[in-house]
Amino acid sequence: MSCVQQFPQHLLDLVKTSKYVHVATCSTDCIPSVSLMNYIYVPGERSFAPEDRSCDYIVFATLNNTEKYQNIISNPIVSLLFHDWITAKNLSLKKRSLSKSSASDQEEVAEGSGTSHSSKLLNLLQELNQSELFQMSATIRGHAAVIAPNSEESSHYKKLLLRTNPDAHVFIEDAKTVIIKVKIQSAKVTDSENNTSIYT
Q: pTM of the full predicted structure?
C-alpha cells in the first residue's frame, strides 16, 4: 500500500493545491541546497509508466546545469516542503489589520464606550486563533529520478506542468530543461501548535 493512502485529507489537499514546493537536495559532500519550484502531484493511477502506478509522485522541471540537478544525479534522496501559505497570508493580513486600528478606536475601548469595536476585536482574535489551528507545514521525503529527455514520458509530464503552471512556460520549454519525478516515501506534518504526525 502506498504511504499516500494513509495521508489525512488535509495533507492531500495541501499537496494537491499548493503552487510551489521547496525542494531540498544534498551533494555527496553533504552540502545542502534548497530551491522554490513549480510542481504537479501525480497519483499512481495517473502515472505515465505502468510500473509506476503503485506509487505517487511529485513532478517538477529543472535545468540540467543547476546545482539541484547535479545533486539529484549523485544523491537522489530529496525532501519537499509544503506550507499552507494561504492560511499564513490570511493570518498575517488579519494581524496587520488589528495592528492598524485607529487611535480613535483604541480610545473608545479605553473609555468604555467602544462596545461595538471591542466585540469586533474579540471576534477577530478568536478568528486568528482558529486560523492558527489549521496552519501547517508538511515535509515529504522521496526518491528522485531523472526522466530521459525527449522521451514520451518527458513530453507527457511537460504538458501537465505547462497546463498547471502556464506562467512558467519559458522555463519548462527551455532546451536544457529536464523532468524530475519524486517517488513519495514518507511525510511529516507539523501544525502551528507543534503537533507532529509521521506517515510512512
A: 0.75
